């Protein structure tokens, strides 16, 4: 089936006085929800008899939910005096996102901000709202209330061109051959990398001449994953990419994800098989009954809590 047409306060001006030398602007304080991080180095200001131009502080991260734990921020390199460029918009923002099916609240006032260049695990038991969230970000389902921004744009035709979505269930005709699917994606998506798809399928041992109807469930999922990861997208949404394959094949699936990952892109990967994916994750989101329990870097668990993400997950959900 065809994919759906997927400040911060300015530092006060320095007085026009050659002595004493101006001091660097103070760094912005972390938000209440964030774990304290080293502040970025302020831009150096050369001493001069004329007033120095304003030097903005480092931008303050958007206020996160109380349950959020900020990822470590890199230290900014010193910049010359003068106006700093405006910070880039986060890759993904979900604001007060709610989805209701009849009497069932599938997602309940969900808020999240995800920067570019992260691999994020969307973790939770079955029925926690993972699939609902991914469908809305992909634009194949609409929220009851709230909004979603991808690269600063509301979900629509422009964002669908930037999002590559792997749904949980098969989405192409079983009567087609694997090579037909490659040709279809190459025609439909301008960003589809056909040589890369050939290479990944060969690496996974998939025969491109085979009919999809002859493939095992695990092989079908491999083919679908290759089709998704061979696009040059900004955001990859993978719904249970290893949920239907045998344990021996999971390493191949994760290898394909890492092989297809490009710096600057973001992957959101939903799963309840935490042990299998925790080594490839930068951050994680815990969902239960449509509500976010925690959004944090994996190091919050491994370094501060002194345990594995899988053990933390099992303790949180008593499973």
Automatic annotation (TrEMBL):
> Which Pfam families does the record cross-reference, listed alphabetically?
ABC_tran
InterPro entries with a match to the protein in the record: AAA+_ATPase (IPR003593), ABC_transporter-like_ATP-bd (IPR003439), P-loop_NTPase (IPR027417)
Tell me the ranges covered by the ABC transporter domain, including all copies. Answer: 92-314
Example of a GO MF term: ATP hydrolysis activity
The source's domain of life comes to: Bacteria
Q: Which SUPFAM superfamilies match?
A: P-loop containing nucleoside triphosphate hydrolases (SSF52540)
Q: Which PANTHER family match?
A: ABC TRANSPORTER, ATP-BINDING PROTEIN, SKFA PEPTIDE EXPORT ATP-BINDING PROTEIN SKFE
The entry's protein name is ABC-2 type transport system ATP-binding protein
Natural source organism: Parvibacter caecicola
């Amino acid at each position: 089936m065809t994919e759906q047409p997927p400040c911060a306060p300015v530092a006060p001006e320095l007085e026009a006085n050659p002595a004493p030398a101006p001091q660097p602007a103070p760094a912005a304080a972390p938000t209440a929800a964030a774990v304290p991080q080293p502040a970025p180095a302020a831009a150096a200001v050369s001493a001069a008899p004329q007033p120095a131009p304003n030097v903005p502080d480092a931008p303050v991260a958007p206020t996160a939910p109380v349950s959020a734990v900020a990822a470590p921020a890199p230290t900014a390199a010193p910049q010359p005096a003068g106006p700093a460029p405006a910070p880039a918009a986060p890759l993904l923002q979900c604001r007060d996102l709610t989805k209701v099916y009849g009497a069932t609240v599938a997602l309940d006032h969900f808020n999240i901000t995800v920067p570019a260049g992260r691999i994020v695990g969307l973790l939770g038991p079955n029925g926690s709202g993972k699939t609902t969230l991914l469908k809305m970000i992909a634009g194949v389902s609409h929220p009851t209330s709230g909004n979603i921004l991808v690269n600063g744009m509301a979900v629509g035709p422009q964002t669908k061109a930037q999002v590559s979505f792997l749904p949980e269930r098969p989405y192409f005709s079983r009567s087609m051959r694997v090579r037909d699917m490659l040709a279809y994606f190459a025609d439909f998506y301008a960003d589809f990398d056909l040589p890369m798809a050939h290479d990944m399928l060969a690496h996974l041992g998939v025969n491109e001449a085979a009919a999809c109807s002859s493939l095992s469930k695990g092989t079908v999922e491999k083919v679908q994953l290759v089709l998704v990861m061979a696009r040059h997208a900004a955001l990859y949404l993978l719904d249970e990419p290893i949920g239907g394959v045998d344990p021996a094949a999971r390493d191949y699936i994760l290898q394909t994800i890492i092989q297809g990952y490009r710096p600057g892109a973001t992957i959101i990967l939903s799963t309840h098989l935490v042990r299998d994916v925790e080594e490839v994750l930068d951050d994680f989101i815990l969902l239960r009954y449509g509500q976010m329990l925690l959004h944090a870097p994996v190091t919050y668990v491994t370094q501060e809590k002194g345990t594995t993400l899988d053990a933390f997950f099992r303790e949180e959900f008593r499973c």
